[in-house]
């Protein structure tokens, strides 16, 4: 490319994120390298590292381009239990959709992406909790940020321990036996 046609901004970012996803689809997370993504995107590694300091951060960004965020279109079923189950089913479905290779790779590199994940999760949880508070099911002032993260922490733990998609029975147990008693005490 000549310097006059050099990609910048959103065009360059889109090319890199598309290349990252395509490279992941071809070689898997374990074999994904910044060099491979750079070559596929027709750019340099340094350009990628300036935006995403780790491959985990790069893949979280690529994943967010590909999938509908869990926080989008949060239900209000009229019941905290059902709202939680709907969102946790989406999270478990996301695991199946993205595959265990990516999810376990990201979990292994969790320190590099935990801020991106923890910033997103409380938003959907707080939406669910606000709905429940508006219905009088819970006292929102008693819910701490750690409590709000708990439903997804438990689902993530289940994925790490079993290396498999989270079954419906586990989601129901998480909600009925752990989360609801904590939120409604």
Output the helix-strand order.
HHHHHHHHH
Rg (CA only): 19 Å
Mean pLDDT: 87
Number of helices: 9
Q: What's the β-strand tally?
A: 0
- Poorly predicted regions: none
By helix and strand content, what is the structural category? Answer: mainly alpha
Largest sheet: none
Cα end-to-end separation = 62 Å
Instruction: Report strand %.
Output: under 5%
- Name the helicity range: over 70%
Identify the overall geometry.
elongated
Describe the structure in your own words.
This protein is an all-alpha fold and 185 residues long. The chain contains 9 helices and no strands. The protein has helices spanning 9-27, 34-41, 45-51, 55-66, 80-98, 100-108, 110-134, 145-162, 168-184. Helix 1 crosses helix 4, helix 5 (80-98) packs antiparallel against helix 7 and helix 8 runs antiparallel to helix 9 (168-184). The longest helix is centred in the middle third of the chain and has 25 residues, at 110-134. The model has no long low-confidence stretch (mean pLDDT 87).
List the keywords.
single chain; about 180 residues; mainly alpha; elongated
Topology:
Blueprint: H1 9-27, H2 34-41, H3 45-51, H4 55-66, H5 80-98, H6 100-108, H7 110-134, H8 145-162, H9 168-184
Helix pairs in contact: 1-2, 1-4, 2-3, 5-7, 5-8, 5-9, 7-8, 8-9
Concise description?
The chain is an all-alpha fold.
């Amino acid at each position: 490319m000549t310097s006059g046609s050099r990609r910048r901004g959103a065009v360059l970012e889109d090319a890199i994120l598309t290349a990252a996803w395509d490279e992941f689809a071809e070689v898997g997370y374990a074999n994904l390298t910044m060099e491979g993504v750079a070559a596929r995107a027709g750019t340099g590694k340094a350009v990628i590292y300036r935006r995403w300091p780790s491959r985990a951060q790069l893949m979280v960004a690529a994943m967010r381009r590909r999938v509908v965020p869990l926080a989008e279109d949060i239900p209000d079923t009229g019941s905290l239990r059902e709202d939680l189950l709907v969102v946790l089913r989406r999270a478990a479905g996301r695991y199946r959709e993205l595959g265990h290779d990516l999810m376990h790779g990201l979990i292994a590199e969790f320190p590099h992406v935990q801020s991106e994940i923890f910033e997103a999760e409380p938003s959907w949880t707080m939406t669910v909790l606000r709905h429940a508070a508006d219905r009088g099911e819970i006292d929102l002032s008693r819910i701490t940020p750690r409590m709000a993260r708990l439903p997804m922490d438990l689902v993530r733990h289940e994925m790490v321990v079993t290396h498999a998609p989270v079954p419906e029975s586990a989601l129901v147990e998480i909600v009925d036996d752990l989360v609801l008693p904590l939120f409604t005490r």
